[in-house]
User: Fold these one by one.
Assistant:
Number 1:
Amino acid sequence: MSILITPSTKILVQGITGDFGGRHAKLSLDYGTQIVAGVTPGKGGLFFEHGTHKVPIFNSVADAVAATGATVAVVYVPPPFAGDAILEGVDAGLDLVVAITEGIPIKDMIRVKRAITGSKTRLVGPNCPGVVTPGTGPDSTGGCRIGIAPGYIHKKGHVGVVSRSGTLTYEAVFQLTSKGIGQSTAVGIGGDPVNGTSHLDIIKLFNEDPDTHAIILIGEIGGNAEVEAARWIKANCKKPVAGFIAGATAPAGRRMGHAGAIVGGVEDTAAAKIAVFKECGIEVAETPSDMADALLRAAKVKGVTLS
């Protein structure tokens, strides 16, 4: 099993005719992802072609859903228009929208956040690398790749990965795969201050997934999402969990990389979050290169064999 997506999930791509969206749509098609539609206003009736694939393009998400049965959208639309693109997926009743776009105005995301509350649509991102459920083929092909993560570093298995950082998601996945340990699903939730899905949301899904046997939680300075997840893990999760917090040397008040990575209070610091992780029984990786080993230590304590 996996969370959020499976290899049979039908995906539509908003912005498929753009350079960035088109490039990653091709990589996802090569991976085996079921891309059934593209959406670009004004280009309905055309096709996106790649090798033997011929993907129909529609003027709206609603048209694409009605014609193809797509249930998930990935958004590569430029920042000024990305908020409306996400809302189009919500209006069409999609199960999931994954927003890759970086730099969406915060006021637009506040509007999206309000609109999405209470709807059936889950938003992952924005400013995220996406979601990967590895397949069983060479370089993990045959799975479902949504977004920009390198599919070939994945391996089908039983570890769930959730992270605010795209690069650290890839690093954790690569370390696991290099040790022969596969992943159920890798989820990049993005580093913006206003996003759709939190660490805790994903941790709950991994906890409920019987095929996920252990979890890596990667966070950074700013906000309290990691602390919220850690305290829930302490009270509810019996699976081995390893964690890493980036930004240990970041000075207070200076934004580091992601818009949401800024220390605004004592509890926003890496030291404070690491202390809470330890208090909650999460095995802490001291450096980025220690993430897979930290999970192996956590698994050993709980008597869980990873594969």
Number 2:
Amino acid sequence: MQMTGAQILIQALLDQGVEVIFGYPGGAVLNIYDALYERRNELCHIVTSHEQGAAHAADGYARSTAKTGVVLATSGPGATNLVTGIATAFHDSVPLVAITGNVPTDLIGRDSFQEVDIAGITNPITKHNYIVKDVNNLADTVREAFVIANSGRKGPVLIDIPKDVTAAKTEYTPKPMFVPRKNLFPPENDLSRALSAIEQAERPLIYAGGGVVFSDASKLLSVFSKKICAPVCVSMMGISSVPYNDMFYLGMIGMHGTSTANIAARDCDLLIAVGSRFSDRVAGNRHKFASNAKVLHIDIDPSEISKNVNARLSLIGDAPQILKELTERCEQKTNSEWIHKLLQHKALNTLPCVYDEQGLNPREVITKLQTVVGEDALIVTDVGQHQMLTAQYYPFTKPRSFISSCGLGTMGYGLGAAIGAKVGNPNRPVVLITGDGSFHMNMNELAVAVSNQIPVVILVMNNGVLGMVHQWQRLFYQERYAYTEIHRATDFVKLAEAFGAVGMRLKERSDIEQTLKAALECKKPCVVDCSIDIKERVYPIIPPGGTEQDMIFSD
């Protein structure tokens, strides 16, 4: 059947099981939008306020559903506006297919209107990218993009399509939906060495990262930890991989991690890292991190092995397959002295949870939120103090229930991601916890939530400052608060109402539960302005480049 390039693109996306696209129209993609209009009953399209918001929405959709997020933008500024969102997905290994239009092929390289080399720009932040100059290659390019985005370590792929290619016609031949490439399985020799190390270990510790969540290995990890009697700590990407109330769970490790998790890393004799990359937020001083332990690194990406922390042992492959194999072949261990010591330390060193001040404490808002929304909720954050407090205090029980920009640390990520998460999970409550600094960056996406009737609840932890940077200035820059005390006069309640959303104000402790319930029950996009004291800090903190011995617990 003869079809235009634009029609082929839409048909190929439908063939891959795509149900929704986030994007923004423009001249170079008008043929694609015209084809989308023809198939509007089969493929949902959400027009965002800005292309960056579209990329974050596709990202939030992908993280929360385990499907591939798809974003569409025009050439030039439309394409470059995607860059932050693509980089965010790349850092956190999120499967994303970004489609950009470009000027016609005969205008490429002539500084044409809205021309940009988006393939060159995104080369370092994509798994792969394409410029499709022949319509006959378009369908196979789309199919291959989905295979690459979802094979091995997942990540974003970009397809740049000149406008004349979207207009050209050719024959379309349907093909089956993509199947990710088969992952490697480690050789027997590596497995035997790993099993021997586990058998000999007296103080094993498991360090779980985002790879556990994204490969759906959470249950297998729990069984494995019990079999070898090893406690589990997590990176921020690994949050929700282990239920907070699991007996062996020690909490988050690293800069804002628990003292128990950090001490366990210091004292363990075998550190089993699963789907994690030892970022500098975890291993502040990578030369001294877990210096008493052998490191056994399990990862699907060979380039991660010994990149930041030297691994004596490694298993390259799919985490669920490897964990299943190790569990079946390991003897039941006890390690009772090691476990007892850590659990005792954990019990005696819980994060503060008693609040006696008059004003709002963000920790209390976060912990009470869970009692209101329940275990099925999706919690999205922006980046800053509120993000770390959510990671520390929110009691996550289900995988894929925590969505945040962890690797790139993208302020302004939250609202777009929350919209995408809600689109992908219409029957689950979605709450964005943000700060006034982060929310100011991309609050224009509130218009999208309103116009598409997407009922996300937005809690703005409003303290009038860029909280995390402000905290660093207090601790490490002699309280020289250079340009972080912004004190903008934005009235978030009026702002919400101006967009057509519901606005609420939360100032008193006694109103927390009542206000949160009202926000959820209104079934509309709702902004809750939470008045937070400027002096709120996030503790504990390990200074950059430090170790657990340098932990700071208070002002």
Number 3:
Amino acid sequence: MDQRAMLEPNIRTVLVCCGTGCLANGSMDVFRALQKQLETEGGEFQVRTYTKATGCNGWCEKGPLVKIVPDDITYCNVKASDVPAIVDKTLKKGEVVKKLLYRDPKTKKYFKSHREISFYTKQLKVALRNIGEIDPANIQDYIARDGYQALAKVLKSMSPEQVIDEVQRSGLRGRGGAGFPTGLKWKACASQAAEPRYVVCNGDEGDPGAFMDRSIMEGDPHSVIEGMIIGAYAVGAAAGFIYVRDEYDLAVVNLGRAIEDARRSGYLGDNILGSGFSFDIEIVRGGGAFVCGEETALLASIEGNVGEPRDKYVYPTEKGLWGQPTVINNVESWANVPVIINRGADEWARVGTATSKGTKVFSLVGKVYNTGLVEVPMGTTLREIIFDIGGGIPNGRQFKAVQTGGPSGGCIPASLIDLPVDFDSLTSVGSMMGSGGMIVMDDRTCMVEVARYYLNFLAGESCGKCVPCREGIRRMLEILTRICNAQGHPEDLEILSSLGETLQVASLCGLGKTAPNPVLSTLRYFRDEYVAHIVEKRCPAGVCRSMTEFYIDASLCTGCGLCKKNCPADAISGEIKEVHVIDQDRCIKCGECINNCKFQAVKVR
């Protein structure tokens, strides 16, 4: 693909989403089929057309996605077999292929442009500004969208102090979880006398269900690199490290290529853009330990030691990597820095709330129609994210809770659906922003089992260095497991609360301090479910098998046969259009009957 053609605005471009999710659904087959057919079609096109493999568009539920610009057409769930229709109708004749357009499940209306679709209309993409629009393997694509202009501005016209002041005035808070002001962190590092200094990008995204940082590293690696170079200039660092989770193969490949391209183009290495400033970046592959998301553990891992945290009575900005002043920010934080410099701190800070400026990227997953990546202004309510963008709860079920902040976050009940999402409001209700994981739960979710699930994950990920975390999480897990197995005792609730509060104050690092959040938040908002498990030996959601019995309400059963068809144990009997019955002796309590019933006729007792 020639670079000149890529920069011509009147050239038609076919953008094929090649993020990890779409790749898993065959988007590379679509991309290759398009390339092959366009090559063989020769000169039959009135408008020159070329294809481009981009990063994730965010709407994983509808992938693979294909966008055609400047026609502003978006096709969903595209297969390689759809390519001839796209070429013949759209690229040759300018007509849309209706069956590939998004159709709203409620209004039945078709949408040509992704800009009209509810999943995108309330989003504001800043950190994700280039993803889905550029080829991450081509630096010219990034440059064509103002890439490296912020770096040039900084090196030519701003002192390091002015850069720090600009970031500080923007109000940018770390997107990795703690929400510490980024400008203050940079200022603290720059004020140290010791040299050398380092900057580090935390790309060790270990939260189950979270893929925000992964998407940015895969789809727009230069935005991270440019942010790090600017940060290095501000604090006086000559070397930087990107710590990437080892499982993120595509991120490692795209970051590695981007670093090489940046070096060749004069943005990395000695005497960057002739400014006299020198800086370079190295990739470090993490071993997959969740605790390495904790910055002191991450630094130990980069040094070649076991990834264990240390107490932060001395911050990394004073003594970090190899005992030297070090700034650590996560992927999304670094990706915001070029925008702050280009637009100015005041313009960037216009978005968001008084104490949480800018936007935040969330991975919206769980029991919601539209799963994927969303970026919204801070202060957007949970209702807007889950129902307006996410499309609400599938299969006619009720929204019950949303878990934010990853395994160490809390569960927020349906009664708080209008809560504005920002750092402080989430903390005030017993949860946290974390790195941006957001898992939606419906009324078929057992909140006791949810707490047990996260404690089980954290027990396996605790490094074991401090006693409160190592022993406390395991004791809480044992109690929750007993409760889910109908062996709980009334005094368990007070013990869980006491253990959780102890972990919050006595643990060494953030993993132990926040590990009780799933338990304490579910005790706070769903205590009746714990009581039902312990006193009544009943799981209201029908998840804990030893306490669950499904039955069919004869007044609601239409005899459609879906429950019988999907029962793996042949435990349901009944003829079509007659009331069905569950054989309790054969039922294995898997829940397939209640999950498939469209008439809410299957009940739990």
